[in-house]
Amino acid sequence: MKHKGFTLIELLVVIAIIAILAAILFPVFAQAREKARAIACVSNEKQIGLGFMLYVQDYDETFPMDQYDTNTVGGAPDDNTLRFWTDFIYPYIKNGDRTTGADGTPITWGTSGVYVCPDYPSPIYGVPYGCNYGLMPDGLVSWTAGTALTPPGTLAALQTPSESVLMAELGVNDAQWTYGMFYPEEDLWTNTVGNPPGSVQGQHFDLIYGDCDATAAQISAGAGTYGGCGTYPRYRHTGTSNMLFADGHVKAIPRGQLNWYKNIYLPGLMPAAY
Question: Which of 163, 8, 147 lies closest to 73 in space, CA to CA?
Fold first, then answer.
């Protein structure tokens, strides 16, 4: 009796077809997975945005500070008494890490839950989302002791809340802690905005020095570079970065489309643009 079977050539053809199909489909699956992560990040920021909007309505339309120290200020800040903006909006979200500080009050560092983008590579040293320092400055901490503190901004002070970035996902900081904010100073973002201001978009310092993640060695040895990876937006979602705007909406911004004068600069809350 003769038994029919596949020849070697037929097997090789089938294997080749499977390999071709895999080469075609795997990138599609990867893109679909990344899209799902990007959508999860949008959902996170939307929940955080709702938390901010509820907080603002409860506090005379005033945004919270980005951080302050509950202890008597002096010397280095104490992790047990330092509070981030994540603590201020926690009552409205009730999601993410929660521990108790030395002073007995709860602490939320923003290292889990809605405070972390699924694509963020090392969510262990603090919140990877950063608020706009021009709108939410530092409160009383060791480095502001003895100085006149800048109060947080208000909704009424914002000329274009739908265009002003309140929070962005940041790169990994080159230190074993995160900033929790991004600095909006003009000289960190661009070399010119033209005359009249806003007529020109100069160099993107945020792309030259930002859109990066510090390496493990840099994290271990670093002290947190001012104007480095951890203080600029990170375009980790196939060339886009999700950003929360001051009116509460979230939008994916393509790399290179962020305009400092239009989206970061806050007239009346920051020095005049030049």
Answer: 147
Residue 22, pLDDT score? 77
Task: Give the model's pLDDT for residue 76.
Answer: 56
- Whether 269 is in a domain gets the answer no
Supply the pLDDT for residue 4: 62
pLDDT of residue 23: 79
Low-confidence ranges of the chain (pLDDT < 50): none
Residue with tokens 């990040």: 41
Specify the number of domains making up the chain. Answer: 1
Rg (CA), the chain: 23
Give a yes or no: residue 273 inside a domain: no
DSSP-derived secondary structure for 186-201: HHHH-S--TTTTTS--
Q: Is 128 a domain residue?
A: yes
8 Å CB contact between 138 and 152 = no
**pLDDT at residue 3 in the model:** 57
Quick one: pLDDT at residue 19?
Answer: 86
What does the block give as tokens for 102?
């030395």
Asked if the structure places residue 3 within a domain, the reply is no
What range defines the domain where residue 217 resides? 8-264
